[in-house]
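Example for tutorial group B:
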C-alpha cells in the first residue's frame, strides 16, 4: 500500500468516525429532550388529575354541608358529537 493511498484512507476513516460520533451525540441529545418532554407531560397530567381530585373532594364536602353546586367547568369531551341535538356540520 503506497503512502498517498494510506493517508487518504486514514483521513476518510477519521472523517467517518467524527461524523459517527456527531450523529450518536445528536441522537442522544434528542433522546434526552424526548424524555424530558415526556416527564413534563406526565407531571402535567398528574397535576391535572390532582386538581380534579381536589375539586371532587371540595364538591363532596359541599354536598355533605348541603351547599352542593354544579361544576362550572365544561370539558371539551362533553361538547359536540355526544350531544344528539348537535349537527356535525353546525358550527
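The residue assignment follows.
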Amino acid at each position: 500500500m503506497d503512502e498517498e493511498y494510506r493517508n487518504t484512507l486514514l483521513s476518510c476513516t477519521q472523517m467517518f468516525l467524527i461524523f459517527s460520533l456527531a450523529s450518536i451525540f445528536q441522537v442522544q441529545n434528542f433522546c434526552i429532550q424526548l424524555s424530558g418532554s415526556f416527564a413534563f407531560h406526565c407531571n402535567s397530567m398528574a397535576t391535572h388529575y390532582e386538581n380534579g381530585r381536589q375539586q371532587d373532594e371540595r364538591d363532596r364536602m359541599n354536598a355533605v354541608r348541603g351547599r352542593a353546586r354544579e361544576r362550572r367547568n365544561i370539558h371539551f369531551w362533553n361538547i359536540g358529537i355526544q350531544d344528539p341535538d348537535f349537527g356535525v356540520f353546525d358550527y
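The chain has a mean pLDDT of 70. Compare this with the pattern of hydrophobic and polar residues in the output above.
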